[in-house]
Design brief:
By secondary structure, this protein is mostly helical. It contains seven helices and two strands, in the order αααββαααα. The chain has a two-stranded antiparallel ribbon with strand order 1-2. Helix 1 (about 15-30) crosses helix 2. It is globular and about 60 Å long.
């Protein structure tokens, strides 16, 4: 019987570590806790490799001109920094990005684009956006499909709850 070159690790996580792992998994587009953990180890390996090669880790504001020491982690935790036309808007629970200068989320844009069967260029024109913004939305939608789906489900649940309340009152 051939032995695997991988080792299995089973650990107990504190609730805050479970939440962090789940959040990182959603934002990294991982397929579960095991894949997220492997990706986190890749980030740690990247940090260790850079330190071994004479670098030191520094935390500076995102606007700083210095190169990012851990781009994988920055992309996972601050996806809006990867896009020109998409921003994170303050909201009590919504975490998906919206278009700069519009109150339109990526999920709303992509949903309408699919419903109307518009090309990215047609959708951009309908919302008075540059075509590049539509392509950014498509990229973001692929990377964060689970987040968008979860927020769509929450929107549907809230709408249903409002309809029930209106019918009862």
């Amino acid at each position: 019987m051939a032995r695997s070159s991988r080792n299995r690790l089973q650990i107990e996580l504190a609730p805050q570590h479970q939440r962090l792992l789940h959040t990182l998994g959603e934002r990294m587009g991982s397929g579960g806790d095991a894949e997220t953990t492997r990706r986190v180890f890749d980030v740690v390996e990247n940090i260790a490799d850079r330190i071994r090669h004479g670098y030191k880790l520094a935390v500076v504001p995102a606007e700083d001109e210095h190169p990012d020491a851990v781009p994988e982690l920055t992309r996972a935790l601050r996806p809006e920094l990867n896009y020109t036309y998409l921003v994170l808007r303050p909201h009590p629970w919504r975490r998906q990005l919206s278009f700069k200068g519009h109150r339109l989320t990526v999920g709303q844009f992509l949903g309408r684009m699919r419903t109307e069967t518009w090309t990215p260029e047609e959708a951009a024109a309908q919302f008075e956006l540059p075509a590049e913004a539509a392509y950014e939305a498509l990229d973001y939608g692929e990377r964060y499909a689970s987040l968008i789906a979860a927020e769509d489900a929450e929107d549907a649940r809230a709408a249903k709850s409002l309809m029930h309340a209106a019918a009862a009152g």
